[in-house]
Amino acid sequence: MRPARTRTPAKEPFRAAALVLALALGHLCAQEPPAPARPSRADSFFGIHFDFHAGEDCTRIGENFSEADVEAFLTAVRPDFIEVDCKGHPGLSSYPTKVGTPAPGFVRDPMRIWRDATSRHGVALYVHYSGIWDYYVCQHHPEWASVDAGGRKSAKATSVFSPYVDRVLIAQLEELSDVYRIDGAWIDGDCWGAEVDYSKPARSAYRAATGIKSVPKSPEAPGYREYLEFNRAAFRRYLAHYVDEIHRHSPGFQITSNWSFSSMMPEPVSVNVDFLSGDLTSQNGVNNAAFEARCMALQGKPWDLMSWAFTLDWDRPTVMSYKSATQLEQEAAEVMAMGGGFQAYFQQNRDASINLWSLPVMRSLSEFCRARQAYCQKAAPVAQIALLHSSFGYKAASARVYGNSEGLHVPTQGILTALLDGQRCVDIVREYTLGDNLSRYRLIIIPEWESLEKGFCERLTKYVSEGGSLMVIGAGAVGNFRRDLGVKFQGAVAKRSLVLVDGVQHSGIISPLQPVLPNAGTEAFGTISSTADCPAATIAALGRGRIAGVYVDLGRNYEELKTSGMRDFINALVTRLMPDPMVQVEGSHLVHVSVSRLKGETMVNLINAGGRHEDRRNFNYDEVPPIDDLAVSIALPAQPRAIIQQPEGLSLPFTYQGGRARIRLPTLAINSILEVKD
How far apart, in whole angstroms, are the C-alpha atoms of residue 664 and residue 649? Predict the structure, then answer.
């Protein structure tokens, strides 16, 4: 038997130190590398939105929610950010909340899986959270619901005067930040879900603020507009309150309220939201994206827009079909061309799981957007034509707090589409974005806004007298400028079926008509044939500039009864007022154009707007025929070094003469950018 070995005391400390070092090195080697940094929303460009509005039927959330599926999705699609379901309009949360109302049952916690996976991939995680709309709260806390003029409590809209914002919304956002370390929230069902509120707290607050005891209860009642503005101010306070509170609690938390400070809330940004965002209509997405992108582009905040990855007809809500990558790429192109970010909405299943069969479309869409990111992200539009989306006119015509259910945007979107179909470069402006520097635009167009502020009209008249060009469209809108148009108004406005005559083209329209008689020196442009002939438009000199009036409503007609005659009439009138645009495209009316500056270079976006996106009978299409042999002319102060078709990387031959570079584009698939190397 061998004797036990003994250790030399002098060597013991060295052995202990070696053991500690070995353990430390082993621990370090076993640790995962540090998680990659996640981009801020301001620096993000492409994302994917998921939600499923959890309800009482969601009894086994997470059952088929697979970590492997999440890894496959993140690896294939590589988004900058994702938005996932948290609390939808029903008011039940799809994570195991301790401060809200959870859905009936959970097998596992999808939010934890999302957060762990997105952290590993350097992808920002936002939640989809329904704000004012909360059916559960309205049912179980009816005292927190908004109340209509008849005293009926809303079944879906909470009151911004109630404790809901503190007791539920803020409490849950703080919980999500503390427990999951999410990056932010996309608040749905908010500004457009707010209702004119006659709850006791709302009426008491109005009386305290104004001293008025009798609260008006119909749009026709005296003081209703003031009460409506009181409700709008209350929504802004509610929004500012929860944004500021969550920022105070979690300074890095990034938050937006869906459609706030957009076409549906056309006001200057007055709340410290981190970014602007909204989800587009599921049909006619190309034209809708072009409109909404321009409504956000000049608001001075990072912004993105979301396309629904499926088509849904609200008249047949059970009928739904997923879009092709081609459809989504067209919509994305309209958004990116104006400098914004883009995201697409794919539904989660009722247990929160995702559908991997959508990955090919997601991946194709991601590759399309990434290829154009360097030529679009944060690009600034170059001022050419300004199309007014009037804050004053919107508020004068709307009986809602905010939103678009009344169709107030239709005329503006119709005129925008007609201009884009004429290859015009257009910004959508509001009174406050125009400011006093109207002269940076060569042409300003007023599309059928009947109510305009007197001071703003005076600024427009001054702009024209100093050399600008103004086009006023609409039988009611022209009344704002009756002293300046160089015509005599003949009788009252009356709605009827009419024919717009422009050369050999005859277009049927349904519109009010303001008959006029041109003064001497005022040019008649086009004709309206009805019971008596009348000029469709006129052009008159005003100081050093020119003003045109169009005496019928063409925006709504072009949106609903589109004809090539209307398109050509509008754009021929534009040519008379602005004969030498910065960018001219010949060869097809299916090309939409925008021009921007990015990192000191000019970028000309060309979008193939063909396909069947305007056909409401067509839910899905997977082919947009390419457009070949386009002639493009760009006004430039000096001969460029090169013009490159991106992302194809094709250097295009060009000529430069008389201050214009001229090229021929061999083919346009869906979207190309002409990168002008100065």
Answer: 15
